[in-house]
Amino acid sequence: MSENELTSGDFTEQNEPFALFAAWLREAETTEPNDPNAVALATVDKDGLPNVRMVLLKGFDSQGFVFYTNFESQKGQEILSQKKAAMCFHWKSLRRQVRLRGLVEVVSDKEADEYYKTRARGSRIGAWASKQSRPLEGRFALEKAVAEYTARYALGDIPRPPYWSGFRIRPLSIEFWHDRPFRLHDRVEFRREVPEGAWEKVRMYP
Ligand SMILES: Cc1cc2nc3c(=O)[nH]c(=O)nc-3n(C[C@H](O)[C@H](O)[C@H](O)COP(=O)(O)O)c2cc1C
Predict the structure, then answer these.
(1) Whether the model pTM is above 0.70
(2) Structural domain spans, the chain
Protein backbone atom coordinates (compact mmCIF):
# COMPACT_ATOMS: atom_id res chain seq x y z
CA MET A 1 0.00 0.00 0.00
CA SER A 2 1.40 3.40 -0.94
CA GLU A 3 1.80 6.36 1.41
CA ASN A 4 -0.88 8.26 -0.51
CA GLU A 5 -3.42 5.55 -0.08
CA LEU A 6 -2.73 5.53 3.64
CA THR A 7 -3.11 9.26 4.12
CA SER A 8 -5.95 10.00 1.73
CA GLY A 9 -7.91 6.75 2.01
CA ASP A 10 -10.44 5.90 4.70
CA PHE A 11 -8.28 5.32 7.77
CA THR A 12 -10.91 3.07 9.32
CA GLU A 13 -10.05 0.48 6.64
CA GLN A 14 -6.43 0.25 7.82
CA ASN A 15 -5.34 -2.90 9.62
CA GLU A 16 -1.84 -1.94 10.80
CA PRO A 17 -1.59 0.84 13.42
CA PHE A 18 2.12 1.70 13.07
CA ALA A 19 1.85 2.40 9.34
CA LEU A 20 -1.27 4.46 9.97
CA PHE A 21 0.45 6.40 12.78
CA ALA A 22 3.44 7.04 10.49
CA ALA A 23 1.16 8.42 7.79
CA TRP A 24 -0.68 10.70 10.23
CA LEU A 25 2.54 11.99 11.79
CA ARG A 26 4.01 12.69 8.35
CA GLU A 27 0.90 14.67 7.50
CA ALA A 28 1.06 16.56 10.81
CA GLU A 29 4.68 17.48 10.02
CA THR A 30 3.40 19.46 7.05
CA THR A 31 0.40 21.10 8.77
CA GLU A 32 1.31 21.79 12.41
CA PRO A 33 2.86 25.21 13.19
CA ASN A 34 5.42 23.57 15.51
CA ASP A 35 6.33 20.36 17.32
CA PRO A 36 4.12 17.85 15.48
CA ASN A 37 5.84 15.23 17.65
CA ALA A 38 4.66 16.84 20.91
CA VAL A 39 2.58 14.42 22.92
CA ALA A 40 0.91 14.33 26.31
CA LEU A 41 2.49 11.59 28.43
CA ALA A 42 0.47 10.13 31.28
CA THR A 43 2.00 8.18 34.14
CA VAL A 44 0.74 7.05 37.50
CA ASP A 45 2.42 7.46 40.87
CA LYS A 46 2.77 4.84 43.59
CA ASP A 47 -0.59 5.86 45.09
CA GLY A 48 -2.33 5.46 41.73
CA LEU A 49 -2.68 9.22 41.20
CA PRO A 50 -2.31 10.05 37.47
CA ASN A 51 0.12 12.64 36.18
CA VAL A 52 0.39 14.18 32.72
CA ARG A 53 2.84 16.44 30.89
CA MET A 54 4.13 17.01 27.36
CA VAL A 55 7.18 15.32 25.88
CA LEU A 56 8.58 15.01 22.36
CA LEU A 57 8.34 11.73 20.51
CA LYS A 58 11.86 10.98 19.28
CA GLY A 59 11.33 7.67 17.55
CA PHE A 60 8.82 4.98 16.83
CA ASP A 61 8.59 1.72 14.98
CA SER A 62 6.80 -1.58 15.46
CA GLN A 63 8.60 -1.95 18.80
CA GLY A 64 7.02 1.17 20.27
CA PHE A 65 7.11 4.91 20.93
CA VAL A 66 10.31 6.48 22.29
CA PHE A 67 10.94 9.68 24.24
CA TYR A 68 13.89 10.88 26.32
CA THR A 69 14.04 12.33 29.78
CA ASN A 70 15.75 12.50 33.14
CA PHE A 71 15.12 9.21 34.93
CA GLU A 72 15.27 10.99 38.30
CA SER A 73 12.39 13.29 37.30
CA GLN A 74 8.87 12.70 38.53
CA LYS A 75 7.86 10.95 35.29
CA GLY A 76 11.10 8.96 35.31
CA GLN A 77 10.51 7.69 38.83
CA GLU A 78 6.86 6.93 38.14
CA ILE A 79 7.63 4.94 35.01
CA LEU A 80 10.53 3.06 36.59
CA SER A 81 8.27 1.95 39.44
CA GLN A 82 5.03 1.28 37.51
CA LYS A 83 6.40 0.31 34.05
CA LYS A 84 3.20 1.65 32.45
CA ALA A 85 2.34 4.84 30.57
CA ALA A 86 -0.03 6.37 28.06
CA MET A 87 0.30 9.02 25.36
CA CYS A 88 -2.14 11.30 23.59
CA PHE A 89 -1.31 13.21 20.39
CA HIS A 90 -3.64 15.96 19.23
CA TRP A 91 -3.03 17.57 15.87
CA LYS A 92 -5.37 20.57 15.81
CA SER A 93 -4.54 21.39 12.20
CA LEU A 94 -5.78 17.93 11.16
CA ARG A 95 -8.50 17.56 13.82
CA ARG A 96 -7.05 14.20 14.72
CA GLN A 97 -6.13 12.42 17.93
CA VAL A 98 -4.07 9.29 18.58
CA ARG A 99 -4.07 7.67 22.01
CA LEU A 100 -1.94 4.76 23.08
CA ARG A 101 -1.16 2.94 26.31
CA GLY A 102 1.12 0.12 27.24
CA LEU A 103 4.13 -1.27 29.01
CA VAL A 104 7.38 0.66 29.18
CA GLU A 105 10.96 -0.47 28.71
CA VAL A 106 14.22 1.46 28.85
CA VAL A 107 15.96 1.90 25.48
CA SER A 108 19.43 0.38 25.08
CA ASP A 109 22.49 2.44 26.06
CA LYS A 110 23.54 2.38 22.41
CA GLU A 111 20.20 3.83 21.27
CA ALA A 112 20.28 6.52 23.97
CA ASP A 113 23.93 7.41 23.17
CA GLU A 114 23.15 7.74 19.48
CA TYR A 115 20.23 10.07 20.15
CA TYR A 116 22.12 12.07 22.81
CA LYS A 117 24.89 12.79 20.30
CA THR A 118 22.39 14.40 17.93
CA ARG A 119 21.30 16.94 20.56
CA ALA A 120 22.60 20.51 20.54
CA ARG A 121 25.63 21.06 22.78
CA GLY A 122 23.59 23.36 25.02
CA SER A 123 20.94 20.66 25.47
CA ARG A 124 23.61 18.10 26.39
CA ILE A 125 25.00 20.52 29.00
CA GLY A 126 21.46 21.18 30.16
CA ALA A 127 20.92 17.47 30.78
CA TRP A 128 23.81 17.61 33.28
CA ALA A 129 22.79 20.91 34.84
CA SER A 130 19.10 20.20 35.45
CA LYS A 131 18.00 18.15 38.43
CA GLN A 132 14.67 17.85 36.66
CA SER A 133 11.56 17.99 38.86
CA ARG A 134 13.44 18.79 42.05
CA PRO A 135 13.22 22.16 43.84
CA LEU A 136 15.35 24.99 42.41
CA GLU A 137 16.15 27.88 44.71
CA GLY A 138 16.39 30.38 41.84
CA ARG A 139 17.38 30.90 38.22
CA PHE A 140 20.92 31.75 39.30
CA ALA A 141 21.49 28.24 40.71
CA LEU A 142 20.57 26.75 37.32
CA GLU A 143 22.78 29.19 35.42
CA LYS A 144 25.67 28.45 37.80
CA ALA A 145 25.25 24.71 37.17
CA VAL A 146 25.21 25.35 33.40
CA ALA A 147 28.42 27.41 33.70
CA GLU A 148 30.10 24.70 35.78
CA TYR A 149 29.27 21.91 33.33
CA THR A 150 30.19 24.11 30.36
CA ALA A 151 33.64 24.55 31.92
CA ARG A 152 33.93 20.87 32.84
CA TYR A 153 33.10 19.74 29.29
CA ALA A 154 34.81 22.61 27.48
CA LEU A 155 36.92 20.15 25.49
CA GLY A 156 35.85 17.00 23.72
CA ASP A 157 32.67 15.00 23.92
CA ILE A 158 29.95 15.58 26.49
CA PRO A 159 29.06 12.16 27.88
CA ARG A 160 25.43 11.17 28.40
CA PRO A 161 24.50 11.52 32.08
CA PRO A 162 23.85 8.11 33.66
CA TYR A 163 20.36 9.24 34.72
CA TRP A 164 19.35 10.50 31.26
CA SER A 165 17.95 8.05 28.73
CA GLY A 166 14.89 6.99 26.80
CA PHE A 167 11.72 5.06 27.47
CA ARG A 168 9.86 3.01 24.89
CA ILE A 169 6.13 2.51 25.34
CA ARG A 170 5.17 -0.85 23.85
CA PRO A 171 1.50 -0.26 23.13
CA LEU A 172 -1.26 -2.67 24.07
CA SER A 173 -3.77 -0.34 22.46
CA ILE A 174 -3.65 2.49 19.91
CA GLU A 175 -6.73 4.50 19.08
CA PHE A 176 -7.16 6.74 16.04
CA TRP A 177 -9.79 9.47 16.13
CA HIS A 178 -10.79 11.84 13.36
CA ASP A 179 -13.22 14.70 13.66
CA ARG A 180 -16.46 14.35 11.70
CA PRO A 181 -19.43 16.75 11.53
CA PHE A 182 -21.89 16.92 14.43
CA ARG A 183 -19.49 15.12 16.78
CA LEU A 184 -20.09 11.88 14.87
CA HIS A 185 -16.36 11.23 14.79
CA ASP A 186 -14.60 8.15 13.47
CA ARG A 187 -12.79 6.06 16.09
CA VAL A 188 -10.80 2.89 15.59
CA GLU A 189 -8.91 1.10 18.32
CA PHE A 190 -6.27 -1.57 17.82
CA ARG A 191 -5.86 -3.83 20.88
CA ARG A 192 -3.70 -6.76 21.87
CA GLU A 193 -3.09 -8.69 25.08
CA VAL A 194 0.72 -8.67 24.98
CA PRO A 195 3.25 -6.47 23.18
CA GLU A 196 4.10 -9.15 20.58
CA GLY A 197 0.47 -10.23 20.10
CA ALA A 198 -1.77 -9.85 17.06
CA TRP A 199 -3.93 -6.73 16.85
CA GLU A 200 -7.67 -6.86 17.20
CA LYS A 201 -9.37 -3.90 15.49
CA VAL A 202 -12.51 -2.40 17.01
CA ARG A 203 -14.58 0.51 15.73
CA MET A 204 -16.21 2.51 18.45
CA TYR A 205 -19.06 4.93 18.85
CA PRO A 206 -17.78 8.48 19.05
C1 LIG B 1 6.13 20.74 23.90
C2 LIG B 1 6.90 20.21 25.09
C3 LIG B 1 7.82 19.18 24.90
C4 LIG B 1 8.53 18.68 25.99
N5 LIG B 1 9.40 17.63 25.78
C6 LIG B 1 10.02 17.05 26.83
C7 LIG B 1 10.80 15.87 26.63
O8 LIG B 1 10.92 15.33 25.54
N9 LIG B 1 11.41 15.35 27.73
C10 LIG B 1 11.29 15.90 28.97
O11 LIG B 1 11.89 15.38 29.91
N12 LIG B 1 10.52 17.00 29.19
C13 LIG B 1 9.88 17.57 28.14
N14 LIG B 1 9.08 18.68 28.34
C15 LIG B 1 8.93 19.18 29.71
C16 LIG B 1 7.88 18.33 30.45
O17 LIG B 1 6.58 18.66 30.00
C18 LIG B 1 7.95 18.47 31.97
O19 LIG B 1 7.80 19.82 32.37
C20 LIG B 1 9.28 17.95 32.55
O21 LIG B 1 9.77 16.84 31.85
C22 LIG B 1 9.10 17.56 34.03
O23 LIG B 1 8.08 16.60 34.12
P24 LIG B 1 7.92 15.66 35.41
O25 LIG B 1 8.17 16.52 36.62
O26 LIG B 1 6.54 15.12 35.36
O27 LIG B 1 8.96 14.57 35.29
C28 LIG B 1 8.35 19.21 27.28
C29 LIG B 1 7.42 20.26 27.47
C30 LIG B 1 6.71 20.74 26.38
C31 LIG B 1 5.69 21.83 26.61
Answers:
(1) yes
(2) 3-7+14-118+164-203
For ligand 1, atom 31, name the residue with the nearest CA: 54
Our answer on whether the CB atom of 56 is closer than 6 Å to any ligand 1 atom is yes
Nearest CA to ligand 1 atom 14: 55
Tell me what pLDDT residue 167 has: 98
Give me the mean pLDDT over the 47-76 stretch: 97
Q: Is 132 in the pocket of ligand 1 (CB under 6 A)?
A: yes
Q: Establish whether residue 7 lines the binding site of ligand 1, counting it when its CB lies within 6 angstroms of any ligand atom.
A: no
pLDDT in tens, 78-112: 999 999 999 999 999 999 999 999 999 999 999 99
What would the 3-class secondary structure string for the chain be? CCHHHHHHCCHHHCCCHHHHHHHHHHHHHHHCCCCCCEEEEEEECCCCCEEEEEEECCEEECCEEEEEEECCCHHHHHHHHHCEEEEEEEECCCCEEEEEEEEEEECCHHHHHHHHHHCCHHHHHHHHHCCCCCCCCCHHHHHHHHHHHHHHCCCCCCCCCCCEEEEEEEEEEEEEEECCHHHCCEEEEEECCCCCCCCEEEECCC
What is the homologous superfamily of the domain 3-7+14-118+164-203 according to CATH? Answer: Electron Transport, Fmn-binding Protein; Chain A (2.30.110.10)
